[in-house]
Amino acid sequence: MSFLSNTLSRVKPSPTIAMTAKTAELKAAGRDVIGLSAGEPDFDTPQNIKDAAVAAIAAGKTKYTAPDGIPELKQAVCAKMKRDHGLEYTPGQVSVGTGGKQTLYNALMATLNDGDEVIIPAPYWVSYPDMVLLAGGTPVVVETSLDTKFKLTADQLEAAITPKTKWLIFNSPSNPTGAGYSREELKALTDVLMRHPHVWVMTDDMYEHLAYDGFEFCTPAEIEPGLYDRTLTCNGVSKAYAMTGWRIGYAAGPVELIAAMRKIQSQSTSNPCSISQWAAVEALNGTQDFLAPNNVVFKRRRDLVIEMLSQIDGLTCPTPEGAFYVYPSIDGLIGKTSPKGTVIDTDEAFANALLNEADVAVVFGAAFGLSPNFRVSYATSDEALKTACARIQDFCASLT
Question: Taking every annotated instance into account, which residue ranges of this chain make up the domain Aminotransferase class I/classII large (predicted)?
Fold first, then answer.
């Protein structure tokens, strides 16, 4: 009998973290690897946010806090929800966790029983299905397609709902595709959900502020007020505020659900870092002036990557509305062979050969539930992106 829990057999390690670790290992060994696998902005945390953290340390705000966040941060979340989405929440409806991942995990742990189904559109963030499995639920993966720019349609959602469905996990703009849902597209989905009152909505709005070409972000409870009482709106400061290492995420939803999440957090990690919480207060309440200039940089990088990758025969690269990812299809390259003899029969084989033979790290599409594709993160310098895309062009041209 194994000493380890049977639960571990239901889940797998994060492929994105594994590829990032492999990249770091090769770099340490002297390889000139360009990493396009990590979903982490290369911008520094804005100075006003860092100053707030230093001030918190100087003021001795280094003690334990309430398990799911200080009142000041919960109030800042409420103000943000009102300001950006017109949604009214009280601090008792807010949970603050150690990163956005924890708030999602807590909610699933607090609500799922054996047999409960969770609808997850694919491509999906790699952690969604495994968190559902850890919580004892059943992921119901619904594959989208390039034809709909990787967006779930109302008909697909309707067909996936069963009496056992408990949640829809909804992510816009998306990791890994960058696809963002318009108001009209989101309204079509919320109309379906209104016909099925037993289905709750868990939104992952982490890339909310990273939007281009006039795309206007919206969140489900904002589009359909009738969903307010069964929506958990999740977000955090990691991406737009370049605070990945600070580890602060938050969620707003019904009091009963938030209380259940608090109970789980109180018996697991307890409170997030007190200093990070005070930095997050400044992030939400302070100036937002850096967001627009940062988005100009991200858009330029997006366009650079799409232009270079679109020149490759056998590769299709749609233009996303937001986030900092592109998700090209390699359908036209399947079956070819690399110069070192690797048969490109899957997107995983493509990604491995690209790393081993061209020193570019990307994440293969199967990790996100939809193949044959790969994810490129363009949250790095223009110079690195130009060099990496040129290497991808040369590698693809060398396939026979």
Answer: 32-392
Q: Tell me the two tokens of residue 57.
A: 């340390």
| Closest C-alpha among 124, 190, 113, 112 to residue 151 | 124
State pTM to two decimals.
0.95
What is the second-level CATH architecture of the domain 63-285?
A: 3-Layer(aba) Sandwich (3.40)
Residue with tokens 């829990």: 5
Burial group, residue 197, by CB count within 10 angstroms (0-12, 13-18, 19+): exposed
Q: Considering the domain 6-44+290-398 in this protein, what is its CATH number? A: 3.90.1150.10
CA dist 263 → 65, 192, 386 (Å):
15, 32, 48
Alpha-carbon distance of 304 to 33, in angstroms, equals 20
Q: Which residues of the chain have pLDDT under 70?
A: none
**Residue 243 CB neighbours (<10 A):** 23
DSSP 266-321: HTTT-SPPHHHHHHHHHHHHS--TTHHHHHHHHHHHHHHHHHHHTTSTT-B-PPPS
> pLDDT per residue over 109-163, tens digit each?
999 999 999 999 999 999 999 999 999 999 999 999 999 999 999 999 999 999 9
